[in-house]
Design a protein that fits this description.
The chain has about 425 residues and is α+β, with helices and mostly antiparallel strands. The chain contains 19 helices and 10 strands. The strands form 2 sheets. A 5-stranded antiparallel β-sheet has the order 2-1-5-4-3.
Length: about 425
């Protein structure tokens, strides 16, 4: 191939030899069949001199250093329509695409529903997991997860440590004293978390716990990116084992999830299935302006400026009564607005608890009504159910409050010394 590439470039052997830093005689022997392995720098230099295209460079790199062609990370990464379609069609499983530094490039509606942080500008998985309160609360055994993330960062250092974006990410997460301690005390490497089973407490499910398997793939069209699908672990109803052979629902006793809470999680999955069956557009869009983003809500769209300010200072929310969802838009760059359609419940879960200003309260009322079933009788039944649940929670809290006021602790709980 070297001989063919060189002749196609119209070059003699000396320029190719100089690109490799070898003598003309050595280069001549290579073209005759000698098989030394070139370094990354030699491959890059030779590809430049021979004007190799992407596929030719790919072949050169694979033969010599056994790695895929790494695409430049400067500027905005364009996600091809076919890959966006694949991400969207993973519904109802939350799915996202990240670059080699874990910056979120694309995601489907299920991902946005469960973890709305992916819609934020410069959303980054590891920065969110290691530096935010929500990330820390999401992962059970956070220190174990943090250790794996640190090992992944260390692996990235070994492959593209000169990357300024990676260096900034590492500097940001090491500001957390817990992360810094892990960084100093653990020096192992991990490339990915494919097949990892973990427990996550999800804010948009009312801080309920779910069990997830993480699947990681590398798309051929963007080989330096991670295509991640997260699957609920479920097996046959009468099986005692989960989908990967572990004890089925072993996490239930640890997280105290009731059957009702698990049913609610399944309702969210069913809703995602309904969206898919109805062929509702769920893929993330990029439009040119805030007005075009709001127009995605369709005719009769209702702006939610007060809730937008409460949910995130840089987002624009527009309620779509016809689709019974919310258009979440964020200006990611000048003339580029990222748009995702999400359910009203996702927005409601992001609104801070407590008294609301009048304008926000009016918007919240409209949003909550859209989140309820459309038929009046069904909506009234759902409200009655929710109020009953809230009443029971309040009764339990009042009982605990009375117990605390009487004896300073909760009956049945013991201190570290074993005394009640």
């Amino acid at each position: 191939m070297l001989k063919r590439w060189r002749k196609a470039a119209g070059l003699t052997q000396p320029p190719a030899a100089r690109a490799l830093g070898v003598s003309v005689r050595t280069y001549r022997n290579i073209e005759r069949g000698a098989t030394p392995r070139f370094s990354q720098a030699q491959c890059d230099s030779l590809a430049e001199v021979l004007k190799l295209d992407r596929e030719e460079r790919h072949a050169l790199l694979l033969h010599n250093i056994g790695t895929y062609l790494r695409t430049p990370s400067d500027g905005r990464r364009e996600v091809q329509p076919a890959l966006r379609l694949l991400i969207d069609r993973q519904m109802p499983s939350p799915t996202y695409l990240s670059d080699r530094n874990w910056n979120i490039l694309a995601y489907n509606a299920a991902m946005a529903e469960l973890w709305p942080w992916v819609m934020e500008p410069r959303a980054n998985l590891i920065r969110w997991a290691l530096t935010t309160a929500e990330g820390r609360a999401t992962y059970h055994d956070w220190h174990k997860h943090a250790t794996v993330f640190v090992r992944m960062l260390r692996f990235a250092l070994s492959t593209h440590g000169e990357d300024a974006d990676l260096q900034e990410l590492i500097a940001d997460v090491r500001k957390n004293p817990d992360v810094q301690h892990i960084w100093e005390s653990d020096d192992d490497l991990v490339e990915h978390r494919d097949g990892h089973v973990f427990l996550a407490t999800v804010p948009t499910l009312g801080w309920k716990t779910i069990e997830i398997v993480s699947h990681v793939a590398y798309p051929a069209i963007m080989p330096d990116c991670r295509f991640v699908v997260m699957t609920w672990v479920e097996a046959e109803p009468d099986s005692q084992r989960d989908a990967l052979g572990g004890t089925r629902n072993a996490w239930v006793n640890e997280t105290h999830n009731t059957s009702h809470e698990r049913d609610r999680a399944q309702e969210r999955i069913a809703e995602a299935e309904r969206l898919r069956a109805a062929d509702v557009h769920t893929a993330r869009l990029v439009v040119e302006s805030a007005d075009k983003a709001a127009a995605q809500a369709g005719q009769g769209g209702i702006p939610l400026p007060a809730l937008s300010r409460l949910v995130a200072s840089d987002c624009q929310l527009t309620l779509s009564p016809s689709r019974r969802n919310v258009v979440w838009a964020v200006e990611e760059a000048l003339g580029e607005w990222g748009v995702t359609q999400i359910s009203p419940d996702t927005v409601i879960a992001r609104v801070p608890r407590g008294a609301l200003p009048a304008e926000a309260r009016a918007e919240m009322k409209t949003l909550t009504r859209i989140a309820l079933p459309s038929p009046r009788e069904a909506a009234a039944s759902r409200i009655e159910q929710i109020l009953g649940e809230l009443d029971e929670e309040q009764r339990l809290l009042r009982e605990i409050q009375e117990d605390l006021s009487r004896c300073g602790t909760v009956p049945g709980l013991r201190s570290a010394t074993g005394q009640v």
